[in-house]
Amino acid sequence: MTATESFPVFGTTAVLVVTDQAALGRARAIADAELAAIDLACSRFRPDSELAMINRTHGELTRVSELFAALITEALRAAELTDGDVDPTCGQALVSAGYDRDFGELRAGAGGPAGVAPATAAGPVPGWRNVHLDPVTPAVRLVSGAQLDLGSTAKAWAADHCASKIADRLGGGVLVSLGGDVAVAGPPPGHGWRVRVTDDHAAPADTPGQTVTIGSGGLATSSTTVRAWTAGGRAMHHIIDPRTGEPVRSAWRTVSVAAGTCADANIASTAAIIRSEAAPAWLTESGLPARLVRQDGTVQTTPGWPADPPAA
Question: How confident is the model at residue 112 (pLDDT cuts 50, 70, 90)?
Answer without folding.
Answer: very low
